[in-house]
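User: I'm curious whether this sequence folds into something compact or stays loose and floppy. Could you predict its structure so I can see for myself?
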Amino acid sequence: MAPQENSATKQMLPKELDNYSFPQAKLRRTMVDETKEPCVLVAPGSFSPIWLGRTLLALEPLYRVLTKYRDYAKYNTNYEIIGGYLSPVSDAYRKAGLVPSIHRIQMIKLAVEDSWMDVDDWEGIQKEARLPIMLDHFEREINDVLGGVATARGERKQVRVILLAGADLIQTMSVKDVWSQDDLDHILGKYGTFIVERLGTDIDDALAALQQWRDGIHVIPQLIVNDVSSTKIRLFVKRGMTISYLVPAPVVDVG
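Assistant: Here's the prediction. I'll summarize afterward.
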């Protein structure tokens, strides 16, 4: 039986849907510890450009940073991470200086080609895709289309999709009327999130305003301060300054 159409599917035009395929190469299909809850981390962002100190990716070097999230889940939660995805936003995001998605996707794929995370370009080719719909897309592809994940005994388990975000995003969620109650229930209640601390963001105040979803919010401390941003990287490029060691090596030559 074909999977039922949901809000995520309806966002995509028929032609785009025909050309799209969900990336599965790095998604682990069998659990190691079936007593745990399988999960997939999803990190949305502009990635314009992607950089080694990106809040969603945290510190340096890139492959060590991504492993940090698996370590956190292993030692602080009952989750078993079976995969992770970067999801670049659509060009309709209209952020100042946003590089066209075709180039951002190329940069991201080069940046993570040797890591355990993959890149899903579904959101990037949409006319518009809000965060709840993007998470629904991963839920559908992993659980409805692929049937979740197998245990060592051959049983199937549904996979929990978890948002990976910076503290700045959670801070906006704590501000009245910026996000609807339905969206917060959907994002934080149904899916949950791993939050990375960010310099200058008061995470405690933000969490205090989101107490009803606190069980689904996991805060990962940023032990080394890093205030590099995509905005600063673009400024360096504009001024002809080097961005070596600020972005993954393969990304430097893309242009």
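Summary: Strands lie at 37-45, 79-88, 118-119, 149-150, 156-157, 160-166, 193-196, 217-220. Confidence is low (pLDDT under 50) at residues 1-15, 51-62.
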